[in-house]
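Hi, here's the filled form for the chain we discussed.

Project: internal
Contact: R.S.
Residues: 248
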Amino acid sequence: MRFDIATLFPELMENYLSASVIGRAREKGIFTAECHNIRDYAFNKHRRVDDTPYSERQGMLMQAEPIYRCWQAVCDMTRKQPHVIYMSPQGKTLTQKRCIELSKMDNIFILCGHYEGVDERIINKIVDEEISIGDYVLTGGELPALVLIDSVARMLDGVLAQEDGYMDESHYSGLLEYPQYTRPEVWEGMAVPPLLLSGHHANIAKWRREQRLITTLRKRPELLDKLSLSDEDLAIIHKAMEEDGQIV
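And the returned structure, exactly as it came back:
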């Protein structure tokens, strides 16, 4: 899989993409990530890529031409048109489901806006979808782009120590993850649930399912509305609601 990132701050992107799990996977060649400085495609000697918008709004807007030239260069390099994502607060909110879908693509070109955003014409010309990481505004698209790359790349075989390690994590199946514990067995008077020390895999699996349901109920109850729950699941939820003093 290949990511091409069009940005004004390639050094910022490189620092993260060269570190930790993602950095090791990139170094092994599990995926490729190339950062392209949009200023390199400017058509003036000062490498300026922004200008004032045609309105009374204050601020600067990124021009279409340098971005288009960057995209064209990537298309020429890869000999195909990548799937283009513009990181924007106007986009659809990134979900685990979308990350899984994107992880099956071969080439993704990510456009990082800055200032007041980008000329609308470049969106109309090359962008396939706009993605947001939340209902708030950041100073640029670099952080959202890194969130996207991290969440998609870790779905690829060989990135995590266990290939299916992400399947138990929050949101993969629609539920949040169960609580986890490590040594010491007792800390500040709080003990690890005895069942987890039993070695009984079937009972532990059942406990994990129960805890995923309860954790989701208490932290993100709206997620349960989207799931098809068994009678056993509903019984667990109702019992937890009674214990919490909620009306069932």
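Let me know if anything looks off before we file it.
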